[in-house]
Structure formats: C-alpha cells, structure tokens
Specification:
The protein is of the alpha+beta class. The protein contains 7 helices and 14 strands.
C-alpha cells in the first residue's frame, strides 16, 4: 500500500499546477491532503473519481481556509470526521479512515506563526490532540497519522536551527510535545529509513528558499510502532511543485488491511 501526505495549500490551486497529472503518475492507494481550502462543491470530484479515487472531505467552516481530505482507492470500512472537539472541527483538522485493522488519518496541526494568540491556540490544540490520540490508539492500535504537524522535531529537520530557535514550529515546547507524542508509540516513517540531513518538506516563498533548499521538515507519516516493521519505503518528493510544501510517500505491506 502506497500512502501520500501532502499539504496542497489550496486544492484548486494545486490542480491548476498539475496536481492531477502528478497523482496519476504516482498511483498512490491513499492520499492524505491538508489545507485544501475548499468546500466539496468547489472541488472537481469527478476528476478524482476518474482516477479511481473516492474522496472524503472535511473542510473548515470558514471558506478558503484549512481543511483536510483523504483520497482512497480501497474503499474504507468506516470514515470518521473530526475529533468531536468544537474548535478543531470548526477548522477541519482531522479525518480518519478505517481499512480492516488499519486506520489512516490526515491531520493538519495549527500554525502559530501569525502571533501569540494563534501560538497559544496551537499549544492548547496539541494537548487536546495528544489526549485524543492516546485514547484512539487503544481502540485502533494499527494507526498511521499522516499530515502537516507544523513542527520540526530535531535540528536535522530545519535548515538553520540556531536562528529559528525562537520561531513557531521549532520552539522547545513544540519539539518536546512531538517527542512526547511519539512516546505514545509512533515511528517517524521517514527518519526510520533515512538519517540524512537537508531533507525538507516546506519552504518559504521568500528569498528563493526552495531553490536554495532552506527548508523545514514539518510533514510526517507517524506510524504506530507495532506496525513499523511494515514500512518498506519512505521518500520526500521535493520536485513536486504544486504547493509551498512537497509530498511525502511511504509504502507499507498490506497484510494488516
């Protein structure tokens, strides 16, 4: 099973930049999207269906903002929209699909880069998310949570850890939270197979950051440790230019589905 996570920074904009063609070539089984910024009736659903995907959309209530989705070739047994958490669900931040014993979720963690108020919201959200996943993992132990976590975990995951040490996304309390989250029993699929530096998934639009590879690795596939031995491949695809992020792809054995 091939699984993609991709913050598309607007699904309609990404489609205009060749996302559908890229998706056809990639031939993933499950595609977790974040920041879709569209309501279902604004999305060319038939285009995805022609490629063999069923689309499950959980938009924000605010138009043109946030929202997650999952495109899936295998038909899920169940679909769960949101976390039963009003503030999070209003912004469309979590969507889970169950396939047999396997659960795959798309998550979009809030950004705190716009100021202190949103940073405070982010930290409260992270604490609520931790509690939610802690309970969920007891019910669905074969869990993969893929998405934009808006946190670089280690210095290796950011181009300039010294100058970014006081910036949202690399704050000590955020990094400590991600370590605590992984201690629930999650494996960072990319780092599980690749220990090399200079692998990023997001670049600022400023100062030619992408062409100079001055990026941040903030998009993850977090795979439950009890199924981490099913990870066959994990790759970052920086040559996909449909967004300020790029896709991250993993392949797992499908014997748990």
């Amino acid at each position: 099973m091939k699984i993609v996570t991709y913050n598309v920074n607007g699904i309609r904009a990404a489609i205009g930049k060749g996302f559908l063609e890229w998706l056809t070539k990639t031939d993933a089984d499950v595609v977790c999207l974040q920041e879709v910024k569209a309501l279902p009736d604004q999305i060319p659903i038939m285009d995805f269906e022609m490629l063999g995907y069923s689309g499950f959309w959980f938009p924000a209530q605010k138009k043109g903002y946030s929202g997650v989705a999952v495109l899936s070739k295998p038909r899920p047994d169940k679909v769960f929209y949101g976390m039963s958490h009003a503030a999070s669900d209003f912004e469309g931040r979590f969507l889970r699909l169950d396939f047999g014993e396997l659960s795959i979720a798309s998550v979009y963690v809030p950004s705190g880069s716009s100021g202190d108020e949103r940073q405070s919201f982010k930290m409260l959200w992270l604490n609520d998310f931790y509690d939610f996943v802690k309970d969920l993992k007891k019910q669905r132990p074969n869990l993969i949570i893929s998405g934009d976590y808006n946190i670089c975990h280690k210095p290796i995951d950011i181009h300039d850890p010294i100058r970014n040490a006081t910036n949202s996304g690399f704050l000590p309390e955020e990094r400590a939270w991600l370590s605590k989250f992984m201690d629930l029993g999650f494996t960072d699929a990319f780092r599980h197979l690749n220990k090399n530096p200079h692998n990023y998934t997001w670049w600022s639009y400023r100062a030619n950051a992408r062409s100079n590879n001055k990026g941040w690795r903030i998009d993850y596939h977090m795979v439950a440790e009890n199924i981490s031995d099913t990870i066959l491949m994990a790759e970052i695809k920086p040559d996909a230019h449909h967004s300020d992020h790029c896709p991250v792809i993993i392949e797992i054995t499908s014997n748990i589905v």
